[in-house]
Amino acid sequence: MGEQDMPTGPASGTAPGIRRGPGNAPSNPGKRRLGVMGGTFDPIHHGHLVAASEVAAQFHLDEVVFVPTGQPWQKADRHVTPAEDRYLMTVIATAENPQFSVSRIDIDRGGPTYTTDTLRDLRALNPDTDLFFITGADALGQILTWRYAEELFSLAHFIGVTRPGHTLTDPGLPEGGVSLIEVPALAISSTDCRARVASGQPVWYLVPDGVVRYIDKRQLYRGE
Ligand SMILES: Nc1ncnc2c1ncn2[C@@H]1O[C@H](COP(=O)(O)OP(=O)(O)OP(=O)(O)O)[C@@H](O)[C@H]1O
Ligand SMILES: O=C(O)c1ccc[n+]([C@@H]2O[C@H](COP(=O)([O-])O)[C@@H](O)[C@H]2O)c1
Predict the structure, then answer these.
(1) Which reaction(s) does its UniProt entry say it catalyses (predicted)?
(2) What is the pLDDT along the chain (224 residues), one digit of tens a residue?
């Protein structure tokens, strides 16, 4: 299916007016292309992994680094699992893919996690690299509420991916700063995974097998 043929509307989670496909993303020959998948990953699930894999393929990325949040300040109203558990689940989930890695920068910095800090730190660690920040349609719709939002688009190209149950409305993001792509629809959320574990339902095949075992070993989400 070509970019122009991509379906729009609630069924695909896209909205008219959004720039679709990788067409407007930076393309600098010789520069490394690093995807950045930020998330609370409480727990990491196959929706995150499919999104990262699909963006890597469509945008010809050399690597995708998963960056678990330290303190996700916009989730301050709920219990968040300790960062070390979320970090280890992210390592377990990504270990077999040579294109995936995990960074502790947001955890080790301490304090509330702001993506401007994440991207500045990654730029310092990765000279001669173009950064591509991956977000689901829900997170992209909230981006103007992020701290120092106006700086974000000078630090990385943003890629919004479709997510079942969320229609992307363009909140007025800068032209050329954002691309939207369709990814295979997986109606999985960390919230639902936590609720399933709490009520004794399985999360097999929603999260990687090693993550199911880690949740069990550490008795995560039992009392929620
Ligand atoms: N099923 C999915 N499909 C596409 N993108 C997703 C999916 N689940 C999460 N994402 C995106 O991955 C990033 C990290 O998400 P996060 O770790 O908050 O997971 P979540 O499932 O949204 O968690 P919670 O339910 O706890 O809010 C966000 O940009 C989010 O939009
Ligand atoms: O920079 C901010 O103020 C900001 C506010 C909310 C979310 N984010 C980032 O968005 C990504 C997804 O966050 P979350 O809370 O939906 O897991 C993650 O990388 C967060 O650090 C960033």
Answers:
(1) nicotinate beta-D-ribonucleotide + ATP + H(+) = deamido-NAD(+) + diphosphate
(2) 333 333 333 333 444 444 567 777 888 888 999 999 999 999 999 999 999 999 999 999 999 999 999 999 999 999 999 999 999 999 999 999 999 999 999 999 999 999 999 999 999 999 999 999 999 999 999 999 999 999 999 999 999 999 999 987 667 888 889 999 999 999 999 999 999 999 999 999 999 999 999 999 999 999 87
- Provide the CB-side half-sphere exposure for 20 (13 A, CA): 20
Structure tokens at 171: 């909140």
- Residue 39 in contact with ligand 2 by CB distance below 6 A: yes
179 lines ligand 2 (CB under 6 A): no
Q: Closest ligand to 156 CA? A: 2
Which among 113, 148, 158 is the best mutation to test ligand 2's pocket, defined by most ligand atoms within 8 Å of the CB? 113
Residue of 86, 115, 134, 191 with the most ligand 2 atoms within 8 Å of its CB, for mutation = 115
CA nearest ligand 1 atom 14, residue? 39
Nearest residue to 94 via CA among 44, 57, 131, 130: 44
Domains and CATH numbers, the chain: 30-188 (3.40.50.620)
